[in-house]
Amino acid sequence: MTELLMCLILFLPLLSAVLITLVLKRAAGTCGKLAIAAAVASFGFGVLVFAFESQWHGGVLLSVPWIELPGLSVGFGFLVDHLSVLMLLVVGAVGSAIHIYSYEYMRGDAGFSRYFAGLGLFMFSMYGIVVSGNLIQLFIFWELVGLSSYVLIGFWYERGAAADAAKKALITNRIGDFGFLVGILMLWGLTGTVDYDGIKNALSENPGVLGGLSTLTGLLIFCGAVGKSAQFPLHVWLPDAMEGPTPVSALIHAATMVAAGVYMLCRLSFVFLATPAWPEALSWLSAVTAPLVIAWVGGVTALLAALIATQQDDIKRILAYSTLSQLGYMVMAVGMIAPIAAMYHLTMHAFFKALLFMGAGSVIHAIAREQDIWKMGGLRKRMPLTFLVFLAATLALCGVPPFSGFYSKDEILLVAYGQSPGLFVLGMFVAFLTAFYMFRLIMVVFYGKARSAVVDKAHEGSITMTWPMVFLAVLSVVGGLIGVKHYLGAELAHGSVGESQWYLAVFAPFVHAPFIALIGLAAVVLGYISARTMYLGAASDPFPAGRALLARVLRRKLYVDEVYDRLNAVTQEAAAVFADWFDRWIIAGVCVRGAHGTTELTGRMLRLMQSGSLRAYSFWFGFGLVIVILISKSL
Amino acid sequence: MIGLEQYLIVSAVMFGLGLLGLVIRRNVLVMLMSLELMLNAANLALVSFSRFNGDLDGQVFVFFTITVAAAEVAVGLALVIAFFRKRHSAGVDELKSMRL
Amino acid sequence: MYEWLFYIFAGLMLVSGFMVVANPFTRSPVASAMFLVVAIVSMAGLFVMLNAFFLAAVQVIVYAGAVVVMFLFVIMLLNPVERSRRRGWILGVVSALLAPAALVLLLLKAFYALDGGDIAETPVLEGGARELGELLFSAYVLPFEVVSVLLLAAIVGVVVLNKRETE
Q1: What total of structural domains would you count in chain B?
Q2: Domain for residue B27, yes or no?
Q3: Is A279 or A591 the better-scoring residue by pLDDT?
Q4: If you classify domain C1-101 with CATH, what class do you get?
């Protein structure tokens, strides 16, 4: 039965996408309803799988042999365990909410049905990543997710910025995915299998099976996550991806797809348990291990993104950098071999960040697609429900108990405290920055006076927009208390995790690590106070006064894009010059003219022998005979 | 004492003579005769091999060679006649119209 | 006796062969044709000494009787006159000698090293019409038939080549 359910979960969204594209394209309303039905049904089936846990015992179900070659056997199956079921539920819940929300948000758009086809394709691919039981299947869906992301970022393709952003996302992901693919090949080459279980067994039998390539393999696998989860230095595509419709940003570029990198790292966390080693020539790097690099890349991403977020004016970009920052947290947790903490935060983040985007979308929708926060203001009165859910999500993101984010972030900081003081301090500082930029957003958007005429006419969206937000708001509030961590613990824990009552769970962090919980809370309060004093009632951003240089650097996103542009220009110029030289001299000169010249020269030389004189021919015949005899004698 | 090598040496010299004629003479008819000499040299070698190997196959081969040589001479002479009708010469140096 | 006969026939053959290709007295093709007859008949003598009686007869009949006659006919028909010699003839002959001389030297060197044994001590192999005929019509019947096709082709070719265009 579970097999059937999994099939339905995976293929219903695809079916709806195919039907919409091929049959129903003209009937926009039907398309929307069909897509919503498919998404909700998938989610429902996901809940069923979750509820009937006794029907499955973990492992790959319905594995169909797909590629059978000597030394390579790839199946297509459904991996069902706590990790994938949790992810199914997250994707299903957020996805369904977004589908319903989009029905109102995208109403009247010329590409309405195309939009829902894209969402369907995305849901299919995302489910595919979640249920993959081997690296090849994972990589295929990984690329499919990238494709649907490309389609949806460039949804308003007639806008140059959107088309460019889509291209940027695709190309940046290519870089990461290339490394990922090489990593997959290395894992396959070294362990002889692409199945998770096979690799896991190989590693547990002999942690040194990866030999000198173990650190390199880990880093290459991590490359995939760097691209997909937008870690520094490949983070540049995510803020630009906000050119897509806001629900897409909420679903793909906040809650699910960008989390796929983290999910993959958690799935493959056993790879990072291999004995770290470098090839002989690189042994001077022996102090660097893959988990260390991952943790610090995550930490640096979290810090830089949070810094940049403090000086952005576009409401969606602020949220995008916030997403980056939170992804940094998760990657940091993976790097510290705490996949539970990472997945925990991933789940919570999916709820509250999707909610934040939906709230932002609700605001944007209400005030005629205006995204500049300095043109908003005073929306608290006009859109009370949106304000409330946005506030709840913000509190969750900042980590205020008993909202969900507090518990997951506390978990990560707890791990960091135990493993690396540097990362712990960094994490605390990021927590402070998070509270600062989020309350800056709230102060500017929802408090103060309306800064433009259109804001005065703003009003809440219809019920299809508000109810999905309320649904996610509930999840954001109670997410930390419903036992996600324990659900995961059974799967991923390297030790046992005890059961506890929900009312105890509220205070649990204060009980077993009060110091960290209190410091975290203090950072949040500090961030809130500084944001409030600086931004409450401000007409324009007071921050640059006296800190012009810092403000400009942050506003320009640390000039990373500019550096990349310059680098691209230089490399392209060099490559072009080389290609030109190569074409001119090697291809045209040596190959083309050389072949022609050699033939012509040989022809001209041979033509001299064609004197037309029979006697000369017979002379050469005799001469040739002598040579042939000489050669055959010497052989 | 006469052995295989004496016959072969005679045959080789004969072949060389034929080749020499082919190279130095301009008259097509004489060149054809030189060709005959070369063929005959080969025939002599074949027959002596046959004799010293105790095997008649070589002689059968010579029989065929003679037949082919006769046919070749017939065709060759016909060509000479056709050529002569066009150019009124039997000099091989005239045969250069195929040259580029 | 055998040796003497061999040297006589071989010498006669080589000398007349030389006269065919490079007669120092005349450039007339008729002389060449006549010396060709001598060379061929001497070779027939050598064939006889090798016990190839049938081939010796065929040699005389086909070459002396048919081929040389054909040559003479053509010479008579065309009456070709050799043009005046070109300049640099000596140099030409010397350079032209190179290839045949090298070939002959090479072959001679190879054959001198050979030891085929005395002909008197090797078993006699009769090459009469009967023996050859048996072989021709048993083991070599296919080449035999193919040769007949070749002769037919030669006949047709000759006729086509020399047929006068009718107005």
Answers
A1: 1
A2: yes
A3: A591
A4: mainly alpha
Lowest-confidence pick of A309-323, A402-416, B28-42: A402-416
Encoded amino acid at C158, one letter? V
H or E element in which residue A622 lies: helix A614-634
pTM over 0.80: no
CA distance A472 to A528: 24
Structure token digits, residue B5: 């090598």
Query: B99 to chain A: which residues are within 8 Å by CB?
Result: 610-612
Structural domain includes residue B61: yes
In a domain, B51, yes or no: yes
Share of chain A residues as helix, strand and coil, in percent rounded to the nearest 5: 80, 5, 20
Reported ipTM: 0.88
Q: How far apart are CA C53 and CA C47, in angstroms?
A: 7
HSE-up (13 A, CA, CB side) for residue A395: 19
CA distance A212 to A279: 5
C136, two tokens:
């021709």
Smallest Cβ distance to A623: which of C99, C107, C110? C99
Determine the structural domain holding residue B34 and report its residue range: 4-88
Instruction: Give the C-alpha separation, A329 to B82, whole Å.
Output: 100
Tell if the CB–CB gap between B31 and A614 is shorter than 8 Å: yes
CB atoms within 10 A of CB A151: 21
- Give the closest residue to A406 by CA, choosing from A477, A353, A323, A350: A477
Q: Of B51, B20, B44, B46, whose CA–CA distance to B33 is shortest? A: B20
Q: What is the sign, positive or negative, of the torsion defined by CA atoms of A520, A521, A522, A523?
A: positive
Contacts of A613 (CB under 8 A, 6+ apart): B92, B93, B96
Chain A closest-CA separation from residue C131 CA (Å): 34
% of chain A beyond a pLDDT of 70:
96
Instruction: Quote the minimal CA–CA distance from A572 to chain B in Å.
Output: 52
User: Does the pLDDT of residue A255 top 50, yes or no?
Assistant: yes
Contacts (Cβ under 8 Å, ≥6 apart) of A529: none
Residues of A contacting chain B (CB within 8 angstroms): 607, 610-615, 618-619, 622
Residue A495 has pLDDT above 60, yes or no: no
Q: Which amino acid is at A117?
A: A
Residue A619's closest chain C neighbor by CA?
Answer: C99
**B28 in any annotated domain:** yes
